Amino acid sequence: IRGAIQTDAAINPGNSGGPLLDSAGRLIGVNTSIYSPSGASAGIGFAIPVDEVNRIVPRLIRDGRLIRPALGITAAPDNVNRALKLPKGVALLRVTPGSPAAQAGLQVFARGRDGSVIPGDVITAVNEEPVRDLDEMLSLLERRQVGERVTLSLWNAGKTRKQAVQLGSAD
Q1: H/E element holding 101?
Q2: pLDDT higher than threshold 70 for residue 41
Q3: Cα angle at 158 between 94 and 91, to 5 degrees?
C-alpha cells in the first residue's frame, strides 16, 4: 500500500476494513493490517489513507474491481541505473509485445554479441512529473485511468525525447 498510514490504534482480528478516525471523529483512513511480532492485536497498524479510498472506491463501484493502468514494461532494478551511470528513472528491460509501450516504440536495454550494453530508454518523467524509480512511476500512473494518454520523458544514450502513450490495462 503506497502512502499507508501507520497507527498505534488497536486492530483486532476481523477489524480490517474498519474506519480510522481522528480525535474529531473524521475519517482519515481504512484499517487494513497489523504487524504484530507476538501475533496479538498489539503492534503497528496500517490504514489506507482516505484520499486513496476516495480515488479507488468509485472505480470499484463502477467496474466491480480495480483496473490499474499500465504501460506493459518490465523495469530494471535500481542498481542497474547506478552501475551504468544512467539518470534517475525507470530503465526498460522488457516491453510486452502489443502493449502501449510497444506501440509507442519504447526501446529496451540489451546485450550485444560482444557483451556490450545496447542503450535503451529510461523513463525520467510522466506528464512532466519527475520519476526517480519504479515506485514513483507507478504512483503517478495510478492517478490515471486506462485509456488516458500520458507523455513520457525518455532518456536514451544522452538524448532526451517525449513520447505520448495511451495507458492500457494491467489485467
Answers
A1: helix 100-103
A2: no
A3: 25
E strands in the chain: 5-7, 19-21, 27-35, 44-49, 69-70, 73-75, 90-95, 110-111, 117-118, 122-126, 129-130, 149-156, 159-166, 168-169
Grid look-up 474491481 returns 65
Write the pLDDT tens digit of every residue in 51-96. Answer: 988 988 888 998 898 888 999 999 999 899 999 999 999 999 999 9
Q: Are 38 and 84 in contact (CB under 8 A)?
A: no
d(CA 76, CA 71): 14
Q: What's the pLDDT tens digit per position in 110-169?
A: 999 999 999 999 999 999 999 999 999 998 998 898 999 999 999 999 999 999 999 999
Q: What number of CA atoms fall less than 13 Å from residue 102's CA on the CB side?
A: 9
pTM: 0.77
Joined together, the cell numbers standing for residue 61 give 463501484
Q: Give me the sign of the Cα torsion angle 137, 141, 143, 149.
A: positive
DSSP letter at 107 equals -
SS3 63: helix
